[in-house]
Design brief:
InterPro entries: CoA-transferase_III_domain, CoA-Trfase_fam_III, CoA-Trfase_III_dom3_sf, CoA-Trfase_III_dom_1_sf. By secondary structure, this protein is α/β, with parallel strands linked by helices. It has two domains: 262 residues, Crotonobetainyl-coa:carnitine coa-transferase, domain 1 (Rossmann fold, 3-Layer(aba) Sandwich), CATH 3.40.50.10540; 88 residues, formyl-coa transferase, domain 3 (2-Layer Sandwich). Helix content is 37%, strand content 13%. It contains 17 helices and eleven strands. A hairpin with a 6-residue loop joins strand 10 and strand 11.
């Protein structure tokens, strides 16, 4: 079966997470993503995880660059810029997430590109947007978690502002980047017209907090973090993580009546309104956790689920990868490592389409691995390709 984006070509100038994860999502739907890297490769190829690389390559890079072809170009050279423009001229989409102004300095800004390809969908990701007082600031996930209010409401009452354990702003921004690229491609398909799409980390960080922002800005009420560890500042007990005899368990929404039925703590039924469960959330959590600490995790989870109480395991990544539902969903897959030929484990495909299913059809590329093939596709002869490599316009093509 064909992918939904078969026939779509994307000139991908992105780096780090916001852009590459977005373009990978489109590549999995069949788009031909040509990853245009600097000589030597994208910076994140060497970004260490805990001070280490995975067989010479960053695991972060490996997670976000499958199904792509790679070419190395010196965009600061006239010839390198011209090759990039030739690729863009035949592309449907250009994606980039440099700081505002960088692509213009390369001669690859929206107006430059539109002269060569008027129908281009030009997708820009940034930290704060292309205009405004913060355009020159560095845009990075932790900074945007802090600036958007997220860290202020994460953690316990006496904790300092606390970031979450993943690059959640980059992740959401990448999804928005892919989604809005699809909107623009749909418009291009219907009208033949391109447009510029802009996505930024600040807007993305505020966007995924839509319900919390709306509550705080419109209600005459303070939403303080709890002392005991209720997992959201604006939610009542029992919402949180509970210690068990041999681990932890998560309990989300549940009536005090149903909790009392499972635990035998009849006093919990006294908290019979939402106001009471919120005002007394710390007391409820402490009393409930005194009980859960005496219970084996599996037995407790089974008892809670039997009463239709929203509860779940607390897994580390190794446990998650072996979870029977995760296995059934095929959300952990093995892919060939670009340097060793061995396999590494990574995340699978999160959604399914019955007629145009996404597909993992190639491993992440080595830097510049497809330079010769891509230039050949664009009509360059082998001798000319070798000359460009000797002059440093493109990367080494001797392999």
């Amino acid at each position: 079966m064909s992918g939904a984006l078969d026939g779509v070509t994307i000139a991908d100038f992105t780096q780090m997470m916001q852009g590459p994860w977005a373009s990978q999502k489109l590549a999995e739907m069949g788009a031909d993503v040509i990853k245009i890297e600097r000589i030597g490769g994208e910076w994140e190829r060497k970004l260490e995880a805990g001070g280490e690389l995975l067989d010479g390559v960053s695991p972060f890079f490996l997670a976000m660059n499958r199904n792509k072809r790679s070419i190395e170009l010196d965009l600061k050279s006239d010839q390198g810029r011209e090759i990039a423009l030739e690729i863009v001229e035949e592309a449907d989409v250009l994606m980039e997430n440099f700081r505002p102004g960088v692509m213009d300095r390369f001669g690859l800004g929206y107006e430059d590109v539109r002269e060569r390809n008027p129908d281009i969908v030009y997708v820009s990701g940034s930290g704060f947007g292309s205009t405004g007082p913060y355009t020159d600031r560095p845009g990075q996930d932790l900074l945007l978690q802090a600036m958007s209010g997220l860290t202020e409401y994460t953690g316990r009452d006496q904790d300092p502002p606390t970031p979450v354990g993943t690059a959640v702003v980059d992740e959401h921004s990448a999804t928005l980047m892919a989604l809005n690229t699809m909107f623009a491609l749909f418009y291009q398909e219907r009208t033949g017209e391109g447009q510029k799409v802009e996505v930024n980390l600040l807007n993305s960080a505020i966007d995924f907090q839509c319900q919390e922002v709306t509550a705080v800005l419109n209600m005459n009420q303070e939403f303080d973090r709890s002392e005991s560890g209720i997992a959201q500042a604006w939610l009542s007990a029992p919402y949180g993580i509970y210690e068990t005899a041999d681990g932890h368990i998560a309990i989300a929404m549940a009536s005090m009546e149903s909790i009392a039925k499972v635990t035998g703590i009849e006093e919990l039924t006294d908290y019979d309104t939402s106001e009471k469960t919120y005002e007394n959330r710390d007391e409820i959590k402490r009393r409930l956790e005194k009980y859960t600490r005496q219970q084996p995790t599996d037995e407790l989870l089974e008892a809670l689920l039997a009463e239709d109480i929203w509860a779940g395991n607390v897994n580390d990544f190794h446990e998650m990868a072996e979870d029977p539902q995760v296995t059934h969903n095929e959300m952990i897959v093995e892919i060939e490592h670009p340097e060793t030929g061995e396999t590494f484990k990574t995340t699978g495909l999160p959604a399914s389409l019955s007629e145009t299913p996404p597909e993992i059809d190639s491993r992440p590329p080595r830097s510049g691995e497809h330079t010769k093939k891509i230039l050949g596709d664009w009509g360059y002869e082998e001798g000319e390709i070798e000359r460009l490599a000797e002059e440093g316009v493109i990367g080494d093509v001797s392999e």
